[in-house]
Amino acid sequence: SYIDRIEAVDTKLDAFLTKTFDLAKKNAKESEERILKGETLSVLDGIPYALKDNMCTKDIRTTCSSKLLDNFIPPYSATVYKKLQKSGAVLLGKVDMDEFAMGSSNENSAYHIVKNPWDTSRVPGGSSGACAVSVSAGEAAFSLGSDTGGSIRTPAAFCGVTGLKPTYGRVSRYGLVAFASSLDQIGPFGKDIKDVASVLNVIAGHDENDSTSMKVDVPDYTSFLSEDIKGMKVGVDYALLDENKIDKDVVYNIRKAIDKFKEMGAEIVDISFDCFDYAIPVYYLISSSEASSNLSRFDGIRYGVREEGETLEDIIINSRTKGFGEEVKRRILLGTYALSAGYYDMYYNKALKVRKLIKDLYNDIFKKCDIVLTPTTPGEAFKIGEKTTDQTQMYLADIFTVTANLVGIPAASIPCGMSENGMPIGLQISANVFDEGKIIKAAYNYQ
Ligand code: GLN
């Protein structure tokens, strides 16, 4: 039925880049046999899902939505994909994204403009836009995306689904094509927090192939799906909820959500985020610096599409010139500049210092609070094309999401009402490192 659904709606939404229906039918048949015998492999056995196209899948094309990787078939699989296969989950296909995960609207894909299922003239958010679309439109029961500065949470908010960026190091990044290695994290999308917790149970944990994955026990995340958040300390910075700075529909719905937390017995703690003015510049400097280094491997020699040229240097230049899109080139230039001798201390090193200050601020906040509530985005899903000519406006859409990556904490976006235009609004719930359980508990009680 999921395949039928994809056939029926994806011509309008354009979420899928590579469909793996033959494999899905074979895997579903095997699951069915196991289920009939009462020998299921996990709660995900037989459950159909979609993967963002920056996670390597052995023998299945993995493009990162880039022309440069148009023909790339990985010889190995990402750890998360291996874990999902072992759990019996059924891969339906690889879905679109902003090229190399750089973007907030999914408009930077070399393939499609993915549409928001609530209003197809609007963006689904990015960079894991199609992951959110696939769940929102009923094309997949869940999906896995990656989040470097909001790429799971923004699309979840824009498409009215739940998305969780786990703690940095909670989920293995082995086989995830790197964007900014100190910020990247894989996480699940689901229709609600229960589905997200069930998927997190399967993908979380240490992996010897990823030295940044942490050796911290994985609790049963579904055990946090219990009623009652009485006495939970919930941090709120009311100064952020200002109609002069962000959309009034966002302010209204977030305030309503905070009231509901109060009614449920949570204790609201006043906090102050003095860091938001610095968050965007620090994030774009650090992420672009890391990207400029990570993307140097795409030279047309080792991976992907190779353009012609007389010398080795010409081949590399031509492959990168034709293979990369505008936004990717912009980030490589910005990162290379920030890392260059003479500017390193002025930009990159300074950004690292401010990152440490932001981390200290969050440490203090989590001494006083169990969770923190903010909007996920400053506004509803915008119209396709609305922000493509003004990069600063596009980058500012990440104002509430980037700090979680800079600090390494987990954060989720859950649906919390609608705008006047009938578009979903997202509530962001953050917690201290490895406190995904508190987010799950709060979200479960709220939803
Ligand atoms: N929008 C942010 C960027 O363009 C975040 C992307 C992400 O999380 N992958 O860098």
Automatic annotation (TrEMBL):
Entries under Gene3D superfamilies matching the protein: Amidase signature (AS) domain
InterPro entries in the record: Amidase, Amidase_dom, AS_sf, GatA
Domain Amidase: 1-439
Catalytic reaction annotation: L-glutamyl-tRNA(Gln) + L-glutamine + ATP + H2O = L-glutaminyl-tRNA(Gln) + L-glutamate + ADP + phosphate + H(+)
GO CC aspect terms: glutamyl-tRNA(Gln) amidotransferase complex
UniProt keyword list: ATP-binding, Ligase, Nucleotide-binding, Protein biosynthesis
GO MF annotation: an example: transferase activity
EC number(s) on file: 6.3.5.7
Single GO biological process annotation from the record: translation
Residues of the active site: K52 (charge relay system), S127 (charge relay system), S151 (acyl-ester intermediate)
Function summary: Allows the formation of correctly charged Gln-tRNA(Gln) through the transamidation of misacylated Glu-tRNA(Gln) in organisms which lack glutaminyl-tRNA synthetase. The reaction takes place in the presence of glutamine and ATP through an activated gamma-phospho-Glu-tRNA(Gln).
Family membership noted in the UniProt record: Belongs to the amidase family. GatA subfamily.
Known partners and oligomeric status: Heterotrimer of A, B and C subunits.
The protein's name: Glutamyl-tRNA(Gln) amidotransferase subunit A
Organism of provenance: Anaerofustis stercorihominis DSM 17244
Gene transcribed to yield this protein: gatA
